[in-house]
Design goal:
Length: 267
């Protein structure tokens, strides 16, 4: 771990509806949104860096329908980024493998849609994929000579990222795992907030593991889902986790920025 540094990153999975709600509030700020406003307050209080992992389409609606005037809002919030999660909630069923070319197209189309309404700077290069099953070649970094950060699930889905039993055991025992062949940096996700009543203990236990292992990417990756973000219980857990991280000296970060710095390559 570089100079004893600690970092924290928050992501929101399954994001879609909140963006359309925001589009209906033309003339308002992000802070006025019922759930995204909570994220705004987290940033004001803790400096949080947050990524919204989005579906490209849900129930016949598409990100391509979002208006370009949202770009002004996202230009004012560089601490908030968006990235591909899945084409749709039903696209990547468990056990359904995706070919690299199909995966690349899905990511490109979604990120182009994000850039259209939020601006290119709002696109996050770090992957957190919804029920992904497929070859690691599908996760190739862009540019190819760079590194791709991949946030793994907080459960033990056997199909994810084609990890061998040995690799899964390594990731379970460590706080990071590097695939030098495919140039992928895997970071574990801590337990999702909707299932963790004691996030302070989870964060503190993670710091203890990092102190022992001195990883290159000392990040606590915490997350919840859009459908739980309005829950006061979940909001309280997120705030408590961020308080614990801040008290330990953790700095907010986008993992893609950190891997670019630590590995000496493009993210």
């Amino acid at each position: 771990m570089t100079n004893g540094a600690r970092y924290v990153h928050l992501s929101i999975d399954d994001t879609f509806q909140s963006l359309f709600d925001l589009a209906m509030m033309r003339g308002s700020s992000l802070a006025d949104h019922p759930t995204l406003g909570f994220l705004h307050r987290l940033h004001e209080r803790f400096g949080a860096c947050i990524t919204l992992y989005v579906f490209q389409e849900v129930n016949g609606r598409s990100l391509w329908e979002l208006p370009a005037y949202l770009m002004d809002l996202f230009a004012e919030t560089p601490w908030l980024r968006l990235a591909f999660h899945a084409t749709s909630e039903a696209t990547h069923a468990p056990g359904c493998r995706l070919a690299p070319d199909r995966m690349a197209r899905a990511v490109q189309e979604t990120h182009e849609a994000i850039a259209r309404f939020a601006g290119p700077a709002a696109v996050d290069a770090t992957f957190r994929l919804h029920r992904f099953a497929g070859p690691r070649a599908a996760l190739t970094p862009d540019p190819p000579e760079g590194w791709r950060v991949v946030l793994t699930p907080d459960d033990d889905r056997a199909e994810v990222y084609d990890m061998t039993p040995r690799e899964r055991n390594l990731l379970a025992a460590q706080t990071e795992f590097f695939d030098e062949v495919h140039r992928l940096a895997f970071l574990p996700s801590l337990r999702r907030f909707e299932c963790d009543a004691q996030p302070e203990r989870t964060i503190e236990a993670w710091w203890s593991r990092m102190d022992e292992q001195e990883p290159q990417l000392p990040v606590a990756c915490v997350f919840t889902h859009e459908q739980h973000l309005s829950d006061p219980v979940v909001q309280d857990r997120i705030e408590r986790a961020m308080m614990t991280a801040t008290a330990a000296g953790a700095r907010p970060v986008f993992p893609s920025s950190l891997v670019r710095h630590e590995r000496g390559d493009h993210a």
